[in-house]
Amino acid sequence: MSQRTDVAQCFNTFINLLKELELFAEVNDLRLSFDREGNVYLLGTNFQHQLRANPTVWSEVKEEMRQIIAQHCPRVAPRTIEQPTESHE
């Protein structure tokens, strides 16, 4: 992903994806890291992945991030909405 990575756009994509996924997966410990060559890494508690998607196609970058998160981050149990119980008096 080293071809002229737009750091701001990549970070914006990352933040928006985390907002989408925060109800479904543990994303609090995820970070982005950039090296001097312009490579981007998605970092978690027990993993580090270099992003390989074309940096000019943000939908590809977002999808690659989503796949990495799905592979490595535990899912959060969906919140159940309690239904009011009917009284049978």
Describe the structure.
This protein has 89 residues and is of the alpha+beta class. Helix content is 34%, strand content 12%. The protein contains 2 helices and 3 strands. It has a 3-stranded antiparallel beta sheet with strand order 1-2-3, covered by helices on one side. A hairpin with a 4-residue loop joins strand 2 (40-43) and strand 3 (48-50). Helix 1 (7-21) packs across helix 2. The longest helix is centred in the N-terminal third of the chain and has 15 residues, at 7-21. The protein is elongated.
The percent range for helix content is 25-40%
Secondary structure: number of strands:
3
Q: Would you tell me the overall average pLDDT? A: 84
Give the strand order, joined by hyphens, for the main sheet. 1-2-3
Oligomeric state of the chains present here: single chain
**Uncertain runs:** none
What sequence of helices (H) and strands (E) makes up the elements? HEEEH
Helix and strand content put the structural class at alpha+beta
Number of distinct helices:
2
What percent strand? Answer: 5-15%
Task: Based on Cα principal axes, name the global outline.
Answer: elongated
Query: How is the main sheet built?
Result: 3 strands, antiparallel
**Whole-angstrom Rg:** 18 Å
The N- to C-terminal Cα distance equals 66 Å
The domain tally reads 1
